[in-house]
Here is the input.
Amino acid sequence: MKTSAEKTPLGPHASRGSSALLVPLSVNILLPLAMYYMLRAQGIAQWAALLLSSALPAAHALVTAVVRRRAAFFDLFVVGLLLVSAGTSLISGDPRVLLLKDAALPAALGLWILGSLFFSRPFAFHFGDQLRGSSGAGAAERAWRERPEFREALRGLTVLWGCVQLLDATLSTVMALALPVDVVPVVGRVVSFSLLGLVAMATVRRSRGFRARYGIPLFGLRAAAAEARPAASGTH
Here is the structure.
């Protein structure tokens, strides 16, 4: 009979990974969206509601930097972008300036992801580190050095993710300039989530196809190692 640890080889790492995903998702997307419409329902002006709701991700970035005692570049970028767009919006009185901030974020992220192609390891490889953990890091490094198809697949996913972020930025810019201000926050989130869902499905499909063809996973090397250990022990 299998134990719970054997049924879920990722164990506590999976729950930590889920928390690491859900917290930024809530703070950066869901809570600001809910706060904006709550403020609008109270009669708060559009630019003020946008500014106050945008302050949540900036505050989270600052608190995270204080707790970790170091500031990530992207966190500083979020705070700086909010300050610049808030000041411009206050001077011009146009809330669309704050909406354009939401287009600048995926634009910067997309350029950063594509720029990682020029580093020793692309973004998709480092993303996989969050799923592999220390037990799969060595296997991933060996696969990167020895398997050109492994490198090609991760570079291809990096290009896909970066281009989709730039597409999100382009669509966000069009919506910020063309749609009614009160419609943009919710429509923008729907578009962003839809693009994210399409990328996730493409990534899963690519990962499964790669494993079926070459016998190694692109991301779940830690899980594969954990599954192999009980099988090996059963042969003795």
Observations:
- The CA atoms of residues 37 and 49 lie 8 Å apart.
- The mean pLDDT is 78.
- DSSP finds ten helices and no strands in the chain.
